[in-house]
Amino acid sequence: MLVSRLAGIFLAGAVIVALAGCSGEAMITPTPSATPVAPSGDGVLRIGDMTPVSGPLAAFAKAQAAGVELAVNEVNAAGGYNKVPVEVLHRGAGDGDAAVTDASFADLLARGVDVIIAPASASVLAQLAPLAQAAGIALVAPASADNAPAGAVTTPVVPDDTFAVRLRVSDPGVGELSYGIEAYDLTIAAILGATLAKDDGGASVSYGLSLVTGSGIQCSSYGMCLDVLTTQTSIDYVGLAGQINYSDATGMVYFGKAIAPTSTPSAK
Q1: Phi, psi for 226 (deg, rounded to 5)
Q2: Can you give the pTM of this predicted structure?
Q3: What domains can be seen in the chain, in order of their start residue?
Q4: 3-class SS at 255?
Q5: Cα(152)–Cα(157) distance, rounded to whole angstroms?
Q6: Residue 37 confidence class, pLDDT cut points 50, 70, 90
Q7: Distance between alpha carbon 196 and the CA centroid of its chain, in Å?
Q8: How many other C-beta atoms lie within 10 A of the C-beta of residue 91?
């Protein structure tokens, strides 16, 4: 399935390509809507944060974890998911060490997580995608240069001073700040997805993500988006990192302008 904006652009990853008559160019026709799934949650939204403990991304582990914690703490301060606190568990992801990734996923699965925030590693994401799909767990991870569509921005966002302070309140030990914003945005988006789907099961969160990162009314914060959802069935959550372009097949997310679908590089 190709990455897309999913609500209004190639929803649920179904892409139909037709030849555009006399022009000879390909025309993309989206399917009308994402397909709802049967509820499977237990009433508690559990998020697994898999931070890189090895490889070149290890330096960003604390920022990713702090971004997830910051988002969860803010949502819980506002009442949690469906009036129940969101839970978060932090585990390692071995960028280049498949055994670490497997062990962490197995532990999170045993603890009943509904969604996993993974690092910006093409190899980790490729390893996790079939495991998460088989287990019914939603998966989201920032794209990297190795798996993003050609032309997509994969450079991590540099937080401004205000957000840097917020990250360090979440974890005073944070040094390198890259991927803190992305982790925060993806966590908020996942919680909004569960809210829209009215279920915390992994399949529902993935379905909900397709409807909170689409072509609905734009909103830029958790509280603002909740307000819009009182009257709307889809929204376009645009956080600090920009527009979220999400593939429910792979869990890959890139931020910013949507890129017309083409073949993507293989994981390295």
Answers
A1: -60, -40
A2: 0.84
A3: 43-255 (3.40.50.2300)
A4: strand
A5: 13
A6: confident
A7: 15
A8: 20
